[in-house]
Amino acid sequence: MLEPFLFFVFAVLAVSGGLGMLISRSPIASSLWMVMGMIAIAGLYLTLNAAFIGAVQILVYAGAIMILFLFVIMLLNLDETPRLGTVDWRKGAAFVLGVAVLAQLLTVVAVNLPGAARPTGTSPADVARVAQTDVTALGVSLLTDHAFSLEIIGVLLLGATIGAVLLAKKKLV
Amino acid sequence: MDLTWYLSLSAVLFTIGVLGVLLRRNVIVVFLSIELMLNAVNLTLVAFSQSFGDVQGQILVFFVIAVAASEAAVGLAIVIALFRNTLSVNVDEMSLFRG
Question: Which A positions 3-32 lie with beta carbon below 8 A of chain B?
Fold first, then answer.
């Protein structure tokens, strides 16, 4: 009863966050709409019983990445972009392409899934499986099966930090 | 909730991201749209992970978020470097490789 309600609330918030990002003229407003969308997606993770991913989503996406975007926008001191209203053939083609992508994705979902889809988190077996996907199982799998990947991610983040500092410096060495 | 609902929502979010990349000319908004597409795919991964009762999907999402964080850092540094040279964030004016 509660779960479909929460799903629709968070789905509306996520889609309106995306649309607000797409439509608003100022980049700051786009970023703030996007923060709302990110938090709504974190709520969707909670309805999927993925609490850890939801927390990471809020900390990393809504916190760190969006603050980085806002920081760069304010550093560049941008003006508002011109209104999206003028319609030329390129925007029309882009819109048609976007709708084609949506139709394709929804066709794949509609054709392939009704037989295979099962409701999530309802039957006792589902509840038992959910208990296995809690944060303990996630941490154990991360540090045993995927320990090497975890180290590689650490090196990647270090490399990205150094690369970002080098790229944004006044003069490249 | 049915898995189909989550996948349909994810398709809608992905399409909004595609439209943002195609319609907007501001490079920062294009970047935000790419982040939205990454989020849409993360949502499908978590939905499948929940549906199959397998934790591997969530681990993949964890790695995708880490790579997205480093991508955002490097990408925004490139935006700053380009802005210093062209004084613009319009993708139409970034035609250095076009010859």
Answer: 3-4, 7, 11, 14-15, 18-19, 21-22, 27, 30-31
Name the token pair of B67.
Answer: 């790579």
Query: What residues in A contact B61, CB-CB < 8 Å?
Result: 50, 53
- Reported ipTM: 0.90
Q: Taking a C-beta distance cutoff of 8 angstroms, is the pair A47, A63 a contact?
A: no
Task: Tell me the two tokens of residue A165.
Answer: 């500092």
Question: How does pLDDT run along chain B (99 residues), one tens digit per residue?
Answer: 688 889 999 999 999 999 999 988 888 999 999 999 999 999 999 999 888 888 888 999 999 999 999 999 999 998 888 888 877 788 877 777 776
Report pTM: 0.87
Angstroms from A36 CA to nearest CA on chain B: 12
